[in-house]
Amino acid sequence: MAVEDKYISYRIYLVAFGIFLMAVAIAVKLTNIQWVEGDYYRNLAKQRTVKNFIIPANKGNIYSADGSLLATSIPNYEIRFDALASKIESFEKNVKPLSDSLALLLGKSTNYFENELRKARGNRNRYFLVARDLSYTDYVRIKEFPLFNLGAYKGGIIVEQETIREHPIGKIAERTVGYERTSNGQSLDGKGIEWAFRNYLNGKDGKILKQKIAKGQWKPIRDINEIDPQDGYDVISTIDVYIQDIAHHALLKQLESYQADHGSVVVMETKTGHVKAISNLGRAKDGTYYETTNYAVAESHEPGSTYKLADLMALLEDKKADTSTVYDSNGGVVAYSGKKVRDSHKGGYGKISLARGFELSSNTVMVQAVYEAYKNNPSKFVNHLNDFGLNKILGLSIKGEGVPYIPQPTDKNWSNISLPWMAFGYGVHITPMQTLAFYNAVANDGEMVKPQFVSEIKEWNKTIKKYEKEVLNPRICSQETILKLQAVLENVVKKGTGSKLYSKDFSMAGKTGTAQVNYGKNGRSEMYYASSFVGYFPADQPKYSCIVVVHKPNTAFNNFYGADVAGPVFKRIAQKIFTDAPSTNEIKNLDRKIPKQENNYDSYFVKSQNKQQFIPNVKGMSGMDAVALLENLGVKVKVTGVGKVKTQSLEAGQNILKNTTILLELS
């Protein structure tokens, strides 16, 4: 018995010793945590219970020159369902009426939604997708549906919101308005105005410190480190929606008529360089056209006969020839180093003046004139082209400008045919926008201005930055040369290759062009035609310059010349702007008081960007627009019904105070 008691005592001592060792270990660990690793664990605890949250800034809008909204940000909602959140009794009670409501809103059958919801519960799906791409109005409706109206913890509704960029007036000038691609709040890349002016549009995000409380919720902690977001500025583009609509549809009609591959059109204000319209349309596999690439800005290719204006300008400047100098078209064929240059008119034009050769777009006349004048000193001719700015990019504000190319006599690939081929627009590359800027300089009495897409950066009615006219070359050539060039360009339309466009009621000036593209690749299998027309109107007092380029018109129509394919687009645009609507939105006094606008979403949306401190009148507006407008003003909105706003609980003109809530009744 004594032995057994002794054995038990040993066991007690052993256990006690073990407990003692554990106590020592715990004490050591606590001491280590407190004094050695204390800072680390305190910071970790703070990070898990207190952290900074980003307050995203509202992105600015893009407006047209006439005040139309081209791009804006709107909330977009995705609804998901935690199928295990609700109790079985509540689920069974509400699943049928919930399915009825979803069917009414989303356009699918009640049975479909009931089966999907039951399947989600059976599969224990806690993240079932109900609907995506919902407007705020639809979101307000759906969260009041049976079961969902019980909230996230009892009803299982999960709401995810993101802000998306919308183009309220459609896809006009889509590639010029552009986009910005982001990831985790960081800019990746983009196109057009959205990308080029992102530093103004995006504003600056704010931050706020929050503390984690019960049920995974976070409570704001107000302290000196809180930073309010700075909303983005608005960008006022130079685009005129009326002219843009004309240009877009004129180009589209011609592309469809000729089943062309793609095309572009640009209309620019002569004096300022403001781009009033730009459309770039490419053909999809199904035959429809849409904007995929900004061809006018990016596509650098051989221009063909529109380049002959540079020939004539150089010849006249150097007095190597005059408009009256006579050349023999030699039956429509001349040869250089065994390579033939042909006129489009079989048999040529006989003996004609240089001016007439330009008006008829005679390749043989223009090539002979350039070759005879500069064959012994080609650098002099090429230097003129360089001085005209044809070898340099324009430095446009938007990304992706194509790089022009002019062969230089010092290049390794310069040959005996380089000079004559340049004279009729081959062996050189230039974009439509660069060609337009050159012709616009002639229309503008020799002053070359930079094309601009944005005129102003604004914060509501306050101008942050104004983009003035930028002169690239104050005098591209002499006034004497300019007057002669203007005369021959007008004659091209009156009695030259553009005579089909002539109208005694309206004057135009310009040049046709028809180029063979890819003629050197795989024989003739890859070759196609690019038809163009570039000029300005009215001819006597130019207001606008315009270029139209149509690539790969269907040759089955046996008609691919610039005058027939591109010219009618130019004429239609000119007539629509000045003949059909001669008094196009010209505001004489910009300082006049603007009358109060009723039910005008665009004007209210502009005000919202300035943090307008008064309740607007939203009666008659669609529910979605009204909610977006009011929320941008910092007003909390409650909505009943669907459709347009019938009544609002707060009268227009009242001050917006902190936590202001308004109730909208929709019809």
Low-confidence spans: pLDDT under 50, at least 5 residues?
Answer: 581-612
Rg (CA only): 35 Å
**Count of DSSP E strands?**
27
The largest sheet, given as strand count, sense and whether it forms a barrel, is: 7 strands, mixed
Q: How far is it from the N-terminal to the C-terminal residue, by CA?
A: 96 Å
Q: Which structural class do you get from the secondary structure elements?
A: alpha+beta
Q: Identify the quaternary structure here.
A: single chain
On the 0-100 scale, what is the average pLDDT?
85
> Roughly how much helix do the residues carry, as a percent range?
25-40%
If helices are DSSP runs of H or I spanning 4 or more residues, what is the number of helices?
Answer: 22
User: What is the global morphology?
Assistant: elongated
Written account of the structure:
The protein is α+β, with helices and mostly antiparallel strands. Strands 2, 3, 4, 5, 10, 19 and 20 form a seven-stranded mixed sheet that branches. Strand 23 and strand 24 form a beta hairpin. Helix 12 crosses helix 14 and helix 21 runs parallel beside helix 22.
How is this structure best summarized?
This protein has 22 helices and 27 strands. The chain has 667 residues and is α+β, with helices and mostly antiparallel strands.
Q: Topology of this protein?
A:
Blueprint: H1 2-36, H2 38-49, E1 50-55, E2 62-63, E3 69-81, H3 88-106, H4 110-122, E4 128-134, H5 136-142, H6 152-155, E5 157-166, H7 174-177, E6 179-183, E7 186-191, H8 192-196, H9 198-201, E8 206-212, E9 218-221, E10 234-237, H10 241-258, E11 262-269, E12 275-283, E13 289-290, H11 295-298, H12 308-318, E14 326-328, E15 333-336, E16 339-342, E17 351-353, H13 354-359, H14 363-374, H15 378-387, H16 418-423, H17 432-443, E18 448-449, E19 454-459, E20 462-466, E21 471-473, H18 479-495, E22 509-517, E23 528-537, E24 544-551, H19 562-565, H20 567-580, H21 601-609, H22 623-632, E25 636-640, E26 645-648, E27 661-666
Parallel strand pairs: 2-10, 25-27
Antiparallel strand pairs: 1-8, 2-3, 3-4, 3-5, 6-7, 8-9, 10-19, 11-12, 11-24, 12-13, 14-17, 15-16, 18-21, 19-20, 22-23, 23-24, 26-27
Helix pairs in contact: 3-4, 10-20, 12-14, 21-22
